[in-house]
What we know:
Helix content: 40-55%
Amino acid sequence: MGGLDRRPRQPAEAPAPSFAAASQKPHNRYFQDLPDDVISDDTRCQQALQRRHLAVPLYHDRAEGTGTLDAAEPSERAKITELWLAGRGIPPDERASYQAVVEELWAGEPPQVTEQALSMAADGLSRDAILDKLVQDR
């Protein structure tokens, strides 16, 4: 028997955001270059993001004036770190060690640095304390 179809209509699906647009969000830049095998493994991806957040906090947790800098770009990551160190009053002659630790955490190499940093974070140490300890242990 014909008639009107009285089934509820399904709402139209919103178009999926493009990868290019999504990749421009600052937090996406923290994992965009990770290998597929890391991204597809929740535990490894979470560890990678945690170590990168220790290396360079998200824009809202950074030193003033660094919000537009891209942590995924090495030169901008160095500027973010330099401003953070200056704000903490770290002497210029000690800053290269901090820059090196930040780069090691970002890259995840050597793995011992990442393991030590994540362990200290799990123990509740602040980012500043973690990086101070990693530099001291160099």
